[in-house]
C-alpha cells in the first residue's frame, strides 16, 4: 500500500502524502460498507492516469491547485456513485462491453508506461496524457544514477515475480510464505532504493530525484477545499463522472472474479455505496479518487484473507508507519516508483486478447481497436466515449440485420433447420421462416424485405413465421405485419405464427392482433403448423 500509494499519487501529478491518505479512511469506509471480502480499496493506476489527464486540461489548470482539484474529483465521484446507488444502477457495469474495457485499459496502460519511462531513466520530462506527448527528446541527457536505480528496481520486481515463484514452488516452500516473499517485491525495492540514496547521497551528489517531505501524522478531515465557485465544480464534473464510472467497473470486475472463485455473493448496488463512501472519505481527508486495486486485492487473496479484517489490519499498520517512519519515506527515489508503476501496469497491455477478439468477432474487434486508438490519440475520456459509441453503433448494425432463415423439417424428427445448412423436407404450398432476433423499428425493414423476397420466390399458400427467438415486438413491427396480412390475403396467402413466447403473445393480444391474423393461426409448435397444412 505504501509504495503503490506514493507511486500512483505521483502518476496523478500529486504529492506523495495524497496517495497514502487515500489508503486510510477510504479503505476503512469500504471495510464497513462494501460487500467483497478481499477487495483492497485505494489509489489505482487507471484512475490515477485519468486524474492526471483531468488536472492537466487547460480549463482545470487555470483554477485551484492540483491537490484541491483532486479532492473535488473524489467528492464528486463519491456523490455520483451514491446517486447511482439510490437509483439502483448497480447493473450499469454491464453496459460497458469487455472489448471496450480491454481497449481502454490497454491504451491507458501504454500511456502510463510511456509517461513513466522518462522518470525511470532520469529524463527531465513531465507526465504525458496522450501518446504524442510521450516521445523522448534525444537531445536530453540521461541521468545514469537514476537509470541505474530504475533498472535495478525493474530487475528486482521482475525476478521476484514469476521466476522466484517458480523456484519457490520447486523448493516446495509453503504457499503463504512464498506469497509473502514474492509480493514484498515493491516494498523491498523501495527499501533498497532508500538505502542506496542515503548511503551514497545520490540525491545530492548525482541529482537523483526523491519523494521529498512527507508530513508526519494522520490527515485531518477538512472541508476547506470546498471554498470554490459553482463554475469550478462544474468544470471538474465530466472528469469525475468518467473516473467514478471506470473506478466502479474496474472494482466490480475484480471483486466479481474473486467472488466467483470463492463461491461468494457480491451486491453490485451495495458496491456503489461502499466505493461512493470511500471516495467521499478520500475527499475530506486530502486524498484522490480511489477504487479497488487488482494487485493489492490479489495479495489479499493469495495470502488467504477471509474477510475485510485483513484490510483493517493493513490500514492500522499503514497509519502506524505514517506516524513513525514518514521521514524515512522521504528518500524514496522517484525512479523506483516509476519502475513499480511500469511493472504493475504492464500486464494490462493485452495484445493477445485484442488479437483474439479480432479473430472471433470483427465487430467487437473494431470497438476494441477504436477505443484503444481513441485513448492513445485523443485522450482518456474521449477514448471511452468513442469506444462506447462504437459498441452501440455495432450493436444497432447487428440487430438491424438479424439472422433469418427459411427452414424445413429434418426427416423422421420434429426438428426444423435452415435449408441452406441441412438436408430437410420442404413443401410447395408452405413456407416456414424463422426470425432469430427481437423485432423492432430498427430491423423491420430488413425482415420485411426478406419475407417479400422469399414470398416472390416460392409463392406459397401458407406462411408460418417462427418466433422461437423473438422476445419482444414493438408497435412499428406490428403495424408492418398488419399491412403484410392484408397484402397476402389479396393474393390468396395466409400468414401464421408459431412458437410465440408469452411476453410477445401478451402484447399481440392487448392490441387485438390475433383477430387481425384470422384466418391465420398461432401454433404452439412448428410441427403443429406442418401437420395442419400438410396432408
TrEMBL record:
Coiled coil: none annotated. Gene3D superfamilies: STAS domain. Keywords: Membrane, Transmembrane, Transmembrane helix. CDD domains: STAS_SulP_like_sulfate_transporter (cd07042). One of its GO terms (biological process) is transmembrane transport. InterPro entries: SLC26A/SulP_dom, SLC26A/SulP_fam, STAS_dom, STAS_dom_sf. It comes from the Bacteria. It is found in: Membrane. Residues 420-533 form the STAS domain. It is a multi-pass membrane protein. The chain crosses the membrane at residues 6-31, 38-57, 69-87, 99-117, 147-168, 180-202, 230-251, 272-291, 303-323, 335-358, 370-393. GO terms for cellular component: membrane. PANTHER family: SULFATE TRANSPORTER (PTHR11814). This is Inorganic anion transporter, SulP family protein. The lineage of its organism: Bacteria, Pseudomonadati, Pseudomonadota, Gammaproteobacteria, Thiotrichales.
Amino acid at each position: 500500500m505504501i509504495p503503490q500509494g506514493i507511486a500512483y499519487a505521483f502518476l496523478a501529478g500529486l504529492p506523495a502524502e495524497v496517495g497514502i491518505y487515500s489508503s486510510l479512511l477510504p479503505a476503512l469506509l469500504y471495510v464497513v460498507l462494501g460487500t467483497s471480502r478481499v477487495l483492497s480499496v485505494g489509489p489505482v493506476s487507471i484512475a490515477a492516469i485519468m486524474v492526471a489527464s483531468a488536472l492537466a486540461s487547460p480549463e482545470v489548470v487555470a483554477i485551484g491547485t492540483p491537490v484541491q482539484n483532486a479532492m473535488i474529483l473524489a467528492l464528486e465521484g463519491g456523490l455520483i456513485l451514491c446517486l447511482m446507488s439510490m437509483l439502483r444502477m448497480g447493473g450499469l457495469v454491464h453496459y460497458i462491453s469487455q472489448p471496450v474495457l480491454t481497449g481502454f485499459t490497454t491504451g491507458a496502460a501504454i500511456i502510463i508506461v510511456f509517461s513513466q519511462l522518462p522518470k525511470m531513466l532520469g529524463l527531465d520530462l513531465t507526465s504525458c496524457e496522450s501518446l504524442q506527448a510521450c516521445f523522448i527528446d534525444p537531445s536530453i541527457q540521461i541521468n545514469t544514477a537514476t537509470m541505474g536505480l530504475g533498472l535495478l528496481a525493474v530487475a528486482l520486481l521482475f525476478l521476484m515475480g514469476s521466476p522466484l515463484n517458480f523456484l519457490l514452488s520447486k523448493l516446495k516452500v509453503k504457499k503463504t510464505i512464498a506469497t509473502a516473499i514474492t509480493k514484498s517485491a515493491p516494498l523491498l525495492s523501495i527499501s533498497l532504493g532508500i538505502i542506496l540514496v542515503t548511503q551514497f547521497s545520490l540525491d545530492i551528489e548525482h541529482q537523483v530525484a526523491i519523494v521529498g517531505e512527507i508530513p508526519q501524522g494522520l490527515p485531518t478531515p477538512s472541508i476547506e477545499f470546498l471554498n470554490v465557485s459553482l463554475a469550478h465544480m462544474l468544470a471538474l464534473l465530466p472528469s469525475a463522472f468518467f473516473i467514478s464510472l471506470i473506478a466502479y467497473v474496474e472494482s466490480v470486475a475484480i471483486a466479481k472474479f474473486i467472488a466467483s472463485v470463492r463461491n461468494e455473493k457480491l451486491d453490485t448496488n451495495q458496491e456503489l455505496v461502499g466505493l461512493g463512501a470511500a471516495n467521499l472519505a478520500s475527499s475530506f481527508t486530502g486524498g484522490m479518487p480511489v477504487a479497488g486495486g487488482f494487485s493489492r486485492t490479489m495479495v489479499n487473496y493469495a495470502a488467504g484473507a477471509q474477510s475485510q479484517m485483513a484490510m483493517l489490519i493493513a490500514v492500522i499498520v499503514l497509519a502506524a508507519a505514517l506516524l513513525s517512519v514518514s521521514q524515512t519515506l522521504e528518500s524514496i527515489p522517484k525512479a523506483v516508483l516509476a519502475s513499480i508503476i511500469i511493472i504493475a501496469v504492464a500486464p494490462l497491455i493485452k495484445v493477445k486478447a485484442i488479437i483474439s477478439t479480432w479473430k472471433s468477432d470483427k465487430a467487437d474487434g473494431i470497438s476494441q481497436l477504436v477505443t484503444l486508438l481513441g485513448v492513445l490519440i485523443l485522450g482518456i475520456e474521449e477514448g471511452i466515449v468513442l469506444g462506447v459509441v462504437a459498441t452501440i453503433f455495432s450493436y444497432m448494425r447487428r440487430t438491424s440485420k438479424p439472422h433469418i432463415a427459411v427452414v424445413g423439417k429434418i426427416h423422421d424428427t420434429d426438428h426444423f433447420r435452415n435449408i441452406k445448412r441441412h438436408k430437410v423436407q420442404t413443401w410447395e404450398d408452405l413456407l416456414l421462416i424463422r426470425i432469430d432476433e427481437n423485432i423492432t423499428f430498427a430491423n423491420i425493414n430488413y425482415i420485411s424485405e426478406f419475407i417479400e423476397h422469399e414470398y416472390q420466390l416460392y409463392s406459397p399458400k401458407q406462411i408460418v413465421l417462427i418466433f422461437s427467438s423473438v422476445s419482444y415486438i414493438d408497435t412499428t413491427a406490428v403495424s408492418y405485419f398488419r399491412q403484410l396480412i392484408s397484402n397476402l390475403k389479396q393474393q390468396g396467402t395466409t400468414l401464421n405464427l408459431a412458437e410465440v413466447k408469452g411476453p410477445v403473445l401478451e402484447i399481440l393480444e392487448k392490441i387485438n392482433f390475433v383477430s387481425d391474423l384470422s384466418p391465420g393461426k398461432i401454433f404452439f409448435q412448428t410441427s403443429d403448423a406442418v401437420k395442419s397444412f400438410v396432408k
